[in-house]
From TrEMBL:
This is Flavin reductase family protein. It comes from Micromonospora sp. CCTCC AA 2012012. InterPro entries: Flavin_Rdtase-like_dom, NADH-dep_flavin_reductase, Split_barrel_FMN-bd. It is an enzyme of class 1 (oxidoreductase). Pfam families: Flavin_Reduct. Keywords: Oxidoreductase. One of its GO terms (biological process) is pyrimidine nucleobase catabolic process. Its EC number is 1.-.-.-. Residues 22-165 form the Flavin reductase like domain.
Amino acid sequence: MTQPADSASPVDADADALRKLLRHQASTVTVVTAPGSPAVGFTATSFTPVSLEPPVVSFCLSLTSSSWPAVSRSRYLGVHLLGRQQQDVARTFATSGIDRFAAPTRWRLGPEGVPLIEDTLAWLLCRAIDRVTVGDHAIVLAEPELLRHTDVGSPLLYHRGGYAGLAEHVEPPTRRAA
């Protein structure tokens, strides 16, 4: 069996090479919020489900992030799945040194004092159950306690250094007969 020819030779998997490779992976764009004075929030593309029984989700953030001190202490967090039209929200929460909750950001105070961003495809109110430090990041594991979602809209994705969305019409998968 012949191996397909690669267009490039293998390179060491250092931080720069890994960063370049990961630009090829499309990721869902989320904003994570935490209560505080002031409240904090940041854009994350690392959100993932971990378990359904019990329900557990995760996201990662840098230990040098200005949001990390609040997230490291918060018992409750909000995770918001952004819609395709919310690129401005994603950019706002990815920008350092600004009040991310100032207008035009639309949000309200939710249960447990967690800021909830309006008009997202979905949000989850989560209770943090563990924080695991790995290298220069922390993996936050959290149990969703409340959630809200809409069945309308397309998710905002991040791919190759920019925002993207799905095609307007995506066929649902068909079920195969057993």
